[in-house]
Write a structure and sequence with these properties.
422 residues, FAD/NAD(P)-binding domain, six-stranded mixed β-sheet, 25% strand, monooxygenase, monooxygenase activity
C-alpha cells in the first residue's frame, strides 16, 4: 500500500503497542488511545514462545526482553499426591535450539512502551473508545459522547472487554470459563525450584499450583516468580472467608517447598483474581476495522499463547497493509493469514483445558495414566514441544517472517549476561 493512512489504535497493551511500531515505521500516522490515565500492564507473568519472540526480533526488541526475562527450557508437572510426572515438555525435542522466555508483564510492556515513546508515536490517555461511526472514514466516540477522528483504519486492541468488536463482520462475545486463578508476583526463591522451568503441581483437575521464574519487571529490578493457584472465581470469596492461613496450609499440603513463596504473602490483597473466557471472532475485521489480540480471540492460559498470538496479529496486519492495494483488501488478507493458526490453537485449548481445570475425575485420570505414558513415546515429545512453542501450525510464513536464529539469540544473551556481570 503506497498511501499514508491515518490509523487509530484502541488499547496500549502488547498488541496495540506492537501494531503501532510496525505501522509507524511503515510511514502511517498512528494515534494510540488508552483508557487509563497512565498506560500500565495488567497481570503477572507469561511465557513468550518462539513465535512471539520472532516478532519482537523483527521489531528489534528481542535483546531487551531477553535481558529482563528468564529463559525457559522445560514445562514440568507432577501429581501432588503420588509425585508422578504427568507433564514434561522440553523445547530441545525440537530442532534449532528453541526456548521460551518467561517475563513479567511489566517487562514486556516496558520494552514496547519505551520503543513507542522513542519513536514519538502519539498516545492519548484517559480516552475509552466506546463506539465507531463507519462512513467515508471512521469516527470514534468516547464514553462521554465526544467524537474523535476521522481515520482511515481503526485497530481494536482493547482486550477481552472490547466494546469495538461488535462492529466486526461476525461479532462474538467471550463465554466465561469455570476456572480462573489467584496470581501473585513474588521474589524468586531458587532452592528446590528450576530457574529454567515452569513447575506445576496438580490434584486431579481441581487444583493446579504453578511457579514460573519471570526475571525482572524492569532494568535493575530483583528476580521474580509468578505464583498461581487455580480456582473457580465463584469460590474466591469462600477461600478468603476461611482465612489466609487456611489457604496457605492447603498450598503447602500439596507442595511443601512453596512455603518460600507463600510466606511472602501477608494478605489476599496481594493476590489478583484472574477470570478467563473463550471466544474466537470468525472474521477479526469489519469495515475499516481490524481486531487483534485478546479482543479477537481469548482462551484459558493452558497453552500459554495469548501474548504470542497478539504479537503475531500485529505483525500480520502490518504485513497485509504493506502487501495490499487498499484497506479492504488488507483486512481480508489479515483475516486469511491468521485464520488457521488461531482456530487451530483455540480448538486445542478447548480440548486440553478440561484435563487440567475441571471437576471430573475421568479426564485427569486419563491425563495421569494414558496421556502421560504416551507423551514419552516418539514422536509425542516433539509434537508437544511444537504445541507449546506455537509452531505446530506455522504462523510465520503467511505474515512474511522467518523464525529467529535461536543459537544466535542464545549466544548474544549469554554475552550480554556476562558483560552485565563484569
Amino acid at each position: 500500500m503506497q498511501s499514508t493512512l491515518s490509523i487509530a489504535i484502541a488499547g496500549a497493551g502488547p498488541a496495540g503497542l506492537a501494531a503501532a511500531l510496525y505501522l509507524h515505521r511503515a510511514g502511517h500516522r498512528v494515534t494510540i488511545f488508552e483508557r487509563f490515565e497512565k498506560p500500565a500492564p495488567v497481570g503477572s507473568g507469561l511465557i513468550l514462545q518462539p513465535t512471539g519472540l520472532t516478532v519482537l526480533d523483527d521489531l528489534g526488541l528481542l535483546g531487551g526482553i531477553v535481558a529482563l526475562g528468564s529463559r525457559i527450557d522445560r514445562l514440568h508437572g507432577v501429581d501432588a499426591r503420588s509425585g508422578r510426572t504427568v507433564l514434561d515438555v522440553r523445547y530441545r525435542a525440537l530442532p534449532g535450539g528453541r526456548f521460551g522466555v518467561a517475563v513479567h508483564r511489566a517487562a514486556l510492556f516496558g520494552v514496547l512502551y519505551r520503543a513507542v515513546q522513542r519513536e514519538g508515536i502519539t498516545i492519548e490517555t484517559g480516552v475509552e473508545i466506546d463506539s465507531l461511526d463507519m462512513g467515508e472514514a471512521a469516527v470514534l466516540s468516547d464514553g462521554k459522547g465526544r467524537r474523535i477522528g476521522s481515520f482511515d483504519l481503526v485497530i481494536d486492541a482493547s482486550g477481552t472487554r472490547s466494546r469495538l468488536r461488535r462492529y466486526s463482520d461476525v461479532p462474538v462475545e467471550p463465554t466465561p470459563l469455570a476456572y480462573g486463578a489467584f496470581w501473585a508476583s513474588l521474589g524468586w526463591r531458587g532452592e528446590g525450584f528450576d530457574e529454567r522451568a515452569l513447575l506445576q503441581r496438580y490434584e486431579r483437575a481441581r487444583v493446579m499450583i504453578g511457579v514460573l521464574p519471570i526475571g525482572c519487571a524492569g532494568p535493575g529490578g530483583e528476580k521474580m516468580a509468578a505464583f498461581f493457584w487455580s480456582l473457580k472465581p465463584d469460590d474466591a470469596g469462600r477461600v478468603q472467608t476461611a482465612g489466609l492461613e487456611a489457604w496457605k496450609a492447603r498450598v503447602t499440603g500439596y507442595w511443601p517447598e512453596c512455603v518460600a513463596y507463600i510466606d511472602q504473602i501477608d494478605s489476599f490483597e496481594q493476590l489478583s483474581l484472574a477470570r478467563y473466557g473463550h471466544h474466537t471472532l470468525p472474521v477479526p475485521a469489519g469495515r475499516r476495522l481490524a481486531v487483534i489480540g485478546d479482543a479477537a480471540h481469548s482462551t484459558s492460559p493452558q497453552l500459554g499463547q495469548g501474548a504470542n498470538m497478539a504479537l503475531l496479529d500485529a505483525a500480520a496486519l502490518a504485513h497485509a497493509l504493506k502487501q495490499s492495494a487498499c484497506v479492504e483488501d488488507a483486512l481480508a488478507a489479515y483475516a486469511r493469514a491468521r485464520r488457521w493458526h488461531i482456530r487451530g490453537f483455540q480448538t486445542l485449548s478447548r480440548m486440553f483445558t478440561p484435563f487440567y481445570q475441571s471437576d471430573g475425575w475421568l479426564l485427569p485420570f486419563m491425563r495421569d495414566s494414558v496421556v502421560a505414558t504416551m507423551a514419552r513415546v516418539p514422536p509425542s515429545p516433539r509434537i508437544l514441544a511444537a504445541l507449546v512453542a506455537g509452531t505446530i501450525i506455522d504462523p510465520l510464513h503467511r505474515i512474511g517472517l522467518a523464525e529467529a536464529d535461536w543459537q544466535r539469540v542464545a549466544a548474544n544473551s549469554a554475552e550480554a549476561i556476562q558483560v552485565g556481570a563484569t
